[in-house]
Structure formats: C-alpha cells, structure tokens
Design brief:
There is one protein chain. 31% of the residues lie in helices and 24% in strands. It has 245 residues and is an alpha+beta fold. It folds into two domains: 108 residues, Winged helix-like DNA-binding domain superfamily/Winged helix DNA-binding domain (Arc Repressor Mutant, subunit A), CATH 1.10.10; 119 residues, Aminopeptidase (3-Layer(aba) Sandwich). It has a five-stranded mixed β-sheet with strand order 6-7-8-9-10, covered by helices on one side. It has a three-stranded antiparallel β-sheet with strand order 3-5-4. The chain starts with a strand and ends in an 8-residue tail after the last helix.
Length: 245
C-alpha cells in the first residue's frame, strides 16, 4: 500500500504496517461487491440503465482489472433484489418507455430542490460522468459528443480538446480552448453552438460569467475568442469587461 507521497513520488509499505488493526480486510463476496458498485454507479450517473451501470462498473470488457466485477445475469438479479428492497428505484423516461432506468431514492427527492439551477452554465471536462459514456449522453440529451484529441488532426471537427457546454439541462454548445501560461490569455479557438439554438440573449450573461471563472481557474487574466458563430457572441465575449457577480 502507499504509505506516503512526496511530490509525485509514492512510497510503499506492508499493509499491516499502514492499516489500523480494526479495519476489516476480508474480501467482499460477489453480492457485496455488486451492491457497492451499483450504488457507486448510480451515485455518479444519477440515472442509468442496467447496461450503463455495468459499463460504469466494467469500462473495459477485455481488460483484466479489479473492475471486472460480475456477469450481467448476476448483476441483473442483484438489481432486482435492490429494487424490491427499495435501495434503488426503477423508472421510465419520457419518450423512451422501452428501457428501464434506475436511480437512488435520494436522487429523485433532490430533483425539485435543484430547479433553481436551470440557468447555470457548466463547461464540462470530457471525462465528466455526464458525458463519459457517449451512447448514454446521446440517448438522454441528444448530444453527440466525442473528445477529439485522440483523433488525427484532419478528422477533428470541433477542436483538439473540445469541451461540452451545458446550460441548465441542455447541451447548447462546444468550446475548444487553450490557456497561454506565459501570456495569461485564455484562447477560445472555436466556440460552436448546437443546431437550432437561438436564445443567445439569455445565455450569454450566464456563459460569460462561467467563462471568466474558467479563465481564472486556468491562471489566465484575459479571454480572446478566435472563432465563433454568430459574430455577435464573439464580439460580446471578446470584451475584457468582467461579467457582473
């Protein structure tokens, strides 16, 4: 086990010299392990199908790792048991009544509490749980997203490290940016909005505020929009005036 870290260096020691004696180190059985990962998946994803839960648990089918938890039929049985016990809730989503989704009871209770966040803008990481499963993102949000840094340059459509832009509960655009560490300038190389999106007047103030937070997070002091359509968005965002707090 890792006993300590010094910078990027890890120092290992025997487990019995690190863990307190009262820690249970016995391996969990198959049911315990499945329950843990099912709850972990739903806590991270919010709402997911059985297939999506298993993909979260076992991201690489051919890889040998500690995440190769179970066979699908075993997980299906345990999910049913957890539904009967009220630990997770089966549900259907409007417009997609053929597939059963699952959620934690706390997730459903908290839905109404988060209505006031409907105008918030989030610039997401490509590895955020909301977009990490491409098929799930397409199914729930009709948003076809791919991180393009792994593609050859000639195959990229939006940019090297394009980030999804979420406004309320809808994906409205994508942003490819790069932080100039020496110049302290955040360059937005490409800002693309989804087809059919037109509510720029309401969106821009919220986005500008979040963009400045993103700028500061990356150690920058100025924003330069290189490419954006429509032009009025580029003009407003290229203003160096800060969004009102």
């Amino acid at each position: 086990m890792v006993a300590e870290r010094r910078g990027f260096q890890k120092y290992y020691d025997l487990r019995e010299r690190i863990l307190p004696g009262n820690i249970d180190t016995t391996l969990p059985d198959e049911k315990e392990l499945n329950r843990f990962f099912i709850l972990r998946a739903l806590n991270s994803l919010g709402v997911a199908t059985e297939k999506e839960i298993q993909k979260f648990m076992q991201p690489g089918k051919t890889e040998v790792s500690d995440l190769q938890v179970t066979e699908r039929k075993t997980m299906h049985k345990i999910i049913n048991e957890m539904c009967e016990a009220g630990e997770i809730i089966p549900l259907l989503i409007d417009g997609d009544h053929k597939i059963t989704n699952y959620a934690l009871p706390e997730t459903l209770k908290n839905i109404n509490k988060k209505k006031n966040s409907s105008e918030k803008v989030h610039i997401l990481s490509p590895f955020d749980n909301l977009v990490i499963q491409r098929e799930r993102t397409k199914r729930l949000f009709d948003f076809d997203y791919t991180i393009e840094c792994y593609l050859p340059e000639h195959k990229r459509k939006y940019g090297y490290f394009v980030l999804p832009v979420l406004w309320g509960n809808k994906f409205v655009g994508r942003m490819d940016s790069k932080a100039g560490r020496k110049t302290k300038i955040l360059f937005v190389n490409n800002l693309v909005f989804e087809n059919g999106f037109t509510d720029y007047d309401n969106f821009i103030p919220h986005f500008k505020e979040q963009l400045w937070k993103f700028c500061e997070f990356n150690g920058c002091e100025k924003i330069v929009i290189k490419k954006c359509s429509p032009g009025k968005v580029k003009k407003i965002l290229n203003s160096n005036q800060r969004a009102a707090d």
